[in-house]
Structure formats: structure tokens, C-alpha cells
Specification:
2 copies of one chain form a homodimer.
Chain A: H1 9-24, H2 30-36, H3 41-53, E1 57-60, E2 64-67, H4 69-91, H5 101-107, H6 113-122, E3 148-149, E4 159-164, H7 169-178, E5 185-191, E6 198-202, E7 207-210, H8 212-215, E8 218-221
Antiparallel strand pairs in A: 1-2, 3-8, 4-5, 4-8, 5-6, 6-7
Helix pairs in contact in A: 1-4, 2-3, 4-5
Bound molecules: manganese (II) ion (4 copies).
Chain B binds a DNA duplex (30 and 30 nucleotides) through helix 3.
DNA sequence: ATTTAATTTTAGATTTGTCTAAAATAAAAT
DNA sequence: ATTTTATTTTAGACAAATCTAAAATTAAAT
């Protein structure tokens, strides 16, 4: 029985970043990772070599890299911890869903597995975090919620905002102002062919306009 | 307005260790700290110099050292976090009081002040941790638990046995038999006016009777 | 008061993670 | 097919925190 190896916070942050980047693009570059982690490409290359040595990454210089099975497994456990802590902060400590990310960025590195499993139980085994992202179970499995972005939501269909693609401060400010948050019920009343901007209607009858750029980053779920 | 400086986990662990050591002995040595932190005296000396440079420590080589006011202030905030997390683990996540220390040793380094103040509120502003140690408030103040003998403990107040007056072999035999030891949690359920004998209840619901003579020699501490 | 022992500090290395500047390689443009 | 540009990697350095071995200082013993 081999004891679960401990990885540094830095290592964990790299694994998580690579996981997220290869989820969206499929292919990940050194620059992508440097940009995501606010560091330098040279530092990324250094770390890629270390991750390869630990068998967490498949890497050949100049050719590319991707997580190994073990690397993905570790990444998923970090993501599990991140999202469970976010859920805790919002549900139990009354934080806003837009102020928990930074704190979870630290909490995700607390090592105790027993702690996170107890927390999961205490929270009632939530399926998704406050941003609508799925929470992997202790085996790393999770069920992707069926969702589309607002651009692809059929007209006059009531749907619920379930996750946000671009979670930058600027985006969150815009959404806050327009009155769009997780759980908000919306329907698309009109789509302008000219610029793909949309008119959305809320439950309270209010109508707002959002750009194509915004619409592509707001994901909703709805019944068929 | 100066932003609160961030200290490394290592720095925080040193401050906390020195705080605890100077609490008991008054005087602290390089070896004490090395022993407490499972490290080498040479490493301690290195860190003492760094702490001095940060004005967290008053230090003159070969002569001795002690925390500065600022150093003590930081130490108390780490202790506050440590003990609040321990309380959380025991009260909310059903951990045993004997298995929370290691986890709190990591959690105490999470930096968000807002988090710890929200946690404090969520827990109902507890006065002491699962080991009976006082929890400093957000200004670093804490109230030492009140210490009285069992005769003077108010009815139905949960208290912790903190010291024994008469430590004769006969007394210790009696206490051992009744199940009373340092750290035992007890409350007084009934006091008989006839002979000042008491009925005590333990956490495990067991009830025992002790004489006035015994009660006068068992000291307990409790909050308020 | 010397000698001996313990404690503390320095000197010099090591590890981890980062950086800048320069070189190597790949991709894009002419 | 060259040339130019962008990306990636190496080379060399640095800060933080630790270590071992040796030197400096203080404390204890004879
Ligand atoms: Mn993180
Ligand atoms: Mn999230
Ligand atoms: Mn600690
Ligand atoms: Mn404690």
C-alpha cells in the first residue's frame, strides 16, 4: 500500500490550470499556462519538466504536453476541493458567489482527505458549486449538466442560468449590473441577426440587451 | 492605510511556537524552538534573524529573544484561526477532539480575515476550542476561563477538570476509580445541602457522587 | 581557574520555484 | 525557399527555507 504522495501547492495549481485549459481548447501551450498562472513561460517549462519527472504529465519538448491519467486524477481532486469549499462559503458562511474564488484558491490545498469527505457529507453531497460547475465525487467522477450558451437557447424558452464562462471581474460586474446571476430565470425574446445581440426577458418582465460576447459566456439549462 | 502584510506559513509557525514557549517557561531557547518545530537549531537561528529584520522579534545573538508587540499580535491571530478551525471540525464535521490538531495546523494559514470572522460568527463566537483553550477575538483579546473548585461550580455548567488540590495517593486512587482526570468534562447536577456532597454528570451521561472533601480539591475551568 | 560540555551561530550547500536574457526551434510571411 | 516573427527552451541567477559541519560563545564541572 503506497501512501498518497503530497504535492506542493504550486504543483497542484499547475495541474489544475492544465486540466482546465485542455478541457476548453483541447490543446494547451506553454504560453497559455503562463498566462493562466500569471507567471513566465520559462518558469512553466521548468515546471513541465518536473511534472514529467513525477509522471503527472506527458511532455516532449517543443512538441506539446498533456496530463497523464495520474495527473488528471490529482487535478480532479483539487477541483473537487475547490468547489466544495466554494459551496461551503456561499451556503454556510453567506459569502456572495462572486467573492469565494480567491479564498477557495487557498483552501483547495488543504491536504486531509478525511476533511474533504466529511465536508462533502456535511454539505449534503452537492452536485455543483455556486457557479454551476460540477463537483467531482471522491473518485473523480462527475455528471456534466446539460447546458447551452444563451446564443443557442431557442426563443421563448424559459431557462435557468447555470454557469458563467468568462468569470473575470469585468464580466461579473456587467452581469451584476444587468441582473444576471446563477439561478436567474431568463428567456430570449429576440435575436438581432445584425450583431447577434439578444433581448432577454426576466421573470419580473424586465427586458435587457446583451452582446454576442456576453451571450456566449452565459450558460443555461432548460427542459426540452 | 497600510495593507496587512502577509507572512509565510513558516514564519507564522515560528511566531506561534515562540508565543507558546514563552507562555510556559517565560524564557525561550533556540533549542526549544528547534525541538517544537522539528527542525535544526541552525535553521532556527536563520529564521530568528529574519524575524528580527521584520520587526516581529527582539533578538540579540547569544543573549536571547522574545516576540515584539507586533509579533505577539500576529501569533494571536494564528492561534485564533487554529482554534476556530478546531472548533469547526469537532462541532460541525464530527471529528474527535484528538484528531483535529494536524488539520488545523494547515487551516490556520488561510489568509482571509473575512473568512475567519464569518466562521467565528457561524460558530456562535465560541470562547474556547475543543481542548478547553481560549479563542482570541479579532483584536487578539481573550478571556481566561474562570477556575473554581467543584463546590463553587454553578449547576449545569459544563466545565473541565484543570487541577487537583490534594494529590495524595489516596485521592488519586479515588479520582481514578470515579473516572475523574485532568481534562475530564463534568457538570454538577445536584448539590445536597445536608453534607455538601455533589452529583456529577460526565459527557457519557454517567453520574457519580463525590463528597465535599473531594469537591474542594478538584478545580475546574469554565467559560464566563 | 582551567578544562570540558552544551548551546548557539556561521559558512557553505541544497531544494523548490521563480526570474531575465539569450539561444533553439517552430510557425508565418514574403 | 528564405526571411521574419513568435514560441519555447536553456543558461545562469536569486530568494526562501532548510540542512551538515565547523567555529564561536556561554555554561557546567573539575
Ligand atoms: Mn490554488
Ligand atoms: Mn467555482
Ligand atoms: Mn501551522
Ligand atoms: Mn487546540
Amino acid at each position: 500500500m503506497t501512501a498518497a504522495p503530497k504535492y506542493s501547492s504550486s504543483t497542484e495549481n499547475y495541474l489544475k490550470a492544465i486540466f482546465h485549459l485542455q478541457k476548453s481548447d483541447g490543446i494547451v501551450t506553454t504560453n497559455d499556462v503562463a498566462n493562466e498562472l500569471q507567471t513566465r513561460p520559462a518558469s512553466v517549462t521548468d515546471m513541465l519538466k518536473k511534472l514529467k519527472a513525477q509522471k503527472l504529465l506527458l511532455y516532449e519538448k517543443y512538441k506539446g504536453f498533456k496530463l497523464s491519467n495520474e495527473g488528471r486524477k490529482v487535478a480532479l481532486q483539487i477541483i473537487r476541493k475547490h468547489r466544495l469549499w466554494e459551496f461551503f462559503l456561499v451556503e454556510k458562511l453567506n459569502f456572495g458567489w462572486d467573492e469565494v474564488h480567491e479564498i477557495a484558491e487557498e483552501l483547495e490545498h488543504i491536504s486531509s482527505k478525511k476533511l474533504i469527505d466529511r465536508l462533502d457529507e456535511y454539505l449534503g453531497f452537492p452536485k455543483s458549486d455556486p457557479h454551476g460547475d460540477p463537483i467531482p465525487d471522491s473518485n473523480g467522477k462527475f455528471t456534466l449538466p446539460k447546458q447551452v450558451d444563451l446564443l443557442n437557447l431557442p426563443l421563448n424558452k424559459v431557462a435557468e442560468v447555470s454557469s458563467i464562462g468568462d468569470q473575470s471581474a469585468e464580466m461579473l460586474e456587467l452581469l451584476g449590473h444587468k441582473g444576471i446571476a446563477l439561478g436567474t430565470k431568463v428567456e430570449v425574446k429576440k435575436k438581432f441577426a445584425f450583431d447577434n445581440s439578444l433581448e432577454l426577458k426576466f421573470k419580473n418582465q424586465l427586458i435587457v440587451t446583451v452582446s454576442e460576447h456576453v451571450a456566449k459566456n452565459v450558460f443555461v439549462k432548460y427542459d426540452e
